[in-house]
Amino acid sequence: MGKMNEAVTKVAAPGMEAEPIADDAPVTAVDLLHGSILYLDGITVSFDGFRALNDLSLVIERGELRCIIGPNGAGKSTMMDVVTGKTRPDVGQAYFDRQSDLLKMSETEIVRAGIGRKFQKPTVFEKLPVRVNLELAMRANKGVWATLMVRLNGEQRDRIDSVLATIGLIDCRHQHAGVLSHGQKQWLEIGMLLMQEPQLMLIDEPAAGMTHQEVERTAELLVSLAGERSVVVVEHDMDFVRSIARRVTVLHEGRVLAEGSMDAVQNDPKVIEVYLGS
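Above: the chain sequence. Below: its structure as tokens.
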């Protein structure tokens, strides 16, 4: 996607026509998001001459559940790194919510703005109870010591109970996180994200290493989260993707190869050739 002169053109999301602006209109009037929650345009990231992302453009709508798939090295993790501020692109634009410029924000500022990320390997506090893990993740947390010493108010306790019910761990709330199964630890980490009240959740390979029953429960959980917030799931398990997908984006060589429903993507000759196989 070519870059447009912001002084004279209203920047359009991918697939939409640009709209002219009066010459004297302020640049701050530029509407990049068009009602969406995340807008990436022309993102390129190079590592020692290798382009991990190559002119990537992507739009995530408010409240949608999007699955991102693609072969190893397609740029999926790098894309999430850019969105969360871990990696700065060589060129491109990245906007979130109400025109927040992600490329001008620190990782901490991005979290506070409402973007949460769960990595493939759970990172919970295994020696602490499940409930305390959620306390530590609360947005108002000012450190481990403050969280453990200050008594929770009724609203905070209700919030924790609500999240415990959502992730299916209310009966495990007093157990140490270390005794949970792999799937339960994944759910706990999703719960820790929910305690931060994110508008956009980035979930990396949630089904990896789970039992069949845990995979089914995880699918139900992620579907239930969409709507109130936007959820982006990066996954290799095609059966899992098929069970939750509303819209699928296929990355290849750092850019979007195909996008649409799961059926449309599965039957796309380009996707079959480079990823799904015959």
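Residues 182-195 form the longest helix (14 residues).
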